Structure formats: structure tokens, C-alpha cells
Amino acid sequence: MKYCLFFLCLFMVKFTVNAQQQTPVAIIFDSDIGPDYDDVGAITMLHAFADNGKAKILATIACNKYPNAAAVLSVLNTYFKRPGIPVGISKGNAANIADFQHWSDTIVAKYPHAIHSNDEAEDAVEVYRRVLSKQPDKSVTIVTVGFLTNLADLIKSKPDKFSGLNGMHLIKKKVKRLVSMAGRFPGENKFREFNVKIDSTASQLVFGKWPTPVIYSGFEIGVKIKTGLPLVNNNAIQNSPVKDVFSICLPMAKEDNYGRSSWDETAVLVAVNGYAPFYSLQQGYIVVNDNGSNSWNTKGQNQYYLVEKISHTAVAELINNLIQHQPQ
What is 20-70 written as a DSSP string? Predict the structure, then answer.
């Protein structure tokens, strides 16, 4: 435990002292923004990193088109004082999976937001193409913590008013890396991780053809990292959509008695801050089967999955601190 706390303290000092010294990581955040609620923790972390000068949020995009998806992104961006961040949503054949806890209804009804329906949001691929076309080459990190539908559509996109490049060439020119909460590693042909299986065809296309480095934060990484209770128990935080979401959802599942598993938060952490000191990388490439299960081939050169290096409790403490971040 002392070893873990040492690394946590070291990280927090580095986070505070160097926050304004590094070039912010340019992020496009692609999320199913429900039915789970670790997405809310993940976007909160992203805004915390942005407030500390470590990240620049270029766009927030939904790969899930249940009715509240775009409005929820708008609520959270508005709460963190960034109402102008572009919000995109898949307008094609995408999943429509709502949150059974009805947390999205609650925060949409309670908090201000500029976008009130999916119809008011831009098409996801248009947002991707417009935003990417304006960025310096090899500068954008895409964080995907949901289904791969939008990225598959981006790959298949044709030249348009934003860029004369097709989707694959635009990605290769503008994207530095993809960080994805997806799969379980080293993997087997039975377990079907949620983000991969919902649109397995898109997962096969994206992970099979993506032209830049990919880092996977697998199911096995986030499942042990329990977070949210310090946020819920923090009486100093009031009128927060983030606190409301965790307060509503944590009591609804027995497995969340000690906090919610933090799958999506780990992807944001690694995308912005890097994988060290908490993780090492295993090189290779993912193999996605038709049924949404996955395995791992060690012969690849451009893909990596996270391997736990020090105790997950240190990561849990760090995430718990970050998801209590309040707007500046």
C-alpha cells in the first residue's frame, strides 16, 4: 500500500506542477454515454484535465442514439463551462440503448444545456471530419469508450467539403493514436466485452484497419477499480450532475456497494497522462470474432493492451479525486 501511495503522490505532484508546462493533448471523446455511468466519470476526468491545461477537448460524440444521448453530453459540457464543444451523434444505423437507472432523464431535466434532442446535434462523422481537418498533422488522440460504429463510419467516409481525403487517409494524416476501452486481454473466444460485441462488425473493421497506434484498456483493467463513493459522500459538492448520476446509480446494484467499476475512466487517464507508472504495454493486435469475442495475436506491431503494473487501488484513489473535480 505504501508503494502505491508513493506513486499516487508522485503522480499528483507531477500533475499539479507540470499541468501548464506541457502541450495539451487534443482529444475527441466518443462515448455511448449510457447505459452505464462510468462514461460520466470519464468525461468529468477529461474536463478536469482540460481545466489543468493537460487536455484540449475538441469534440464529444455519442455512438449511442437513445433519446437523451446528445442532451447528456450538452449538460456535462455546459456544467464544466464548455457549452461550445461540438456534440455529434450517429445518425445512421447505430445502437439505441438507454440507461435503466434513468439517470439521464434526471440530469437533463435538472441542469441547463443547449442541445435538447439528438436532432439538434450534428452528425458524428461530419463532426469528426470537420474537426480533424482543422488540426495539425498527427496531433489528435481519439478516446473511444463505447461502440465502434462512428469510427467505422469515419473510415468509410468519402471526401467532402471539409477535406479532400477519404476517411482512412484523413485518420492517418491527423490522428496520433486511438485509446479504446474495449475487449478483454489476452482474450479468449468466449468472453464478449460489451463495447466490442454491440457492433461487432464495426469493431472488426476499426480494429482490423486502423492506421495509427491503438492502446486498449481491457475489461480486466477497469473491473477492479471501484470509484464514486467519495464523490457521493462529499457534502461540499452540491448541484452537480456528476454527483447526481453516481448517487442515483450506486445503490441500484449490489456489486456497486464499494463503488462502480471504472472502465471508461482508465481510457481517459491513459490517453491524457500516458500509461506509466500504473501500466505497461503488451504489443500485438486484437482479433475480433463475428460474435464480438476477442483474442490477441502477439505478432502485431501497432497495437497494445494495458497490463497492470502496480495495485489498482492507487488508480482508484486518483480517479476518485479527479471525478470530484468542480467547474472553474
Answer: TTSPPEEEEEEE---SSSHHHHHHHHHHHHHHTTSEEEEEEEESB-STTHH
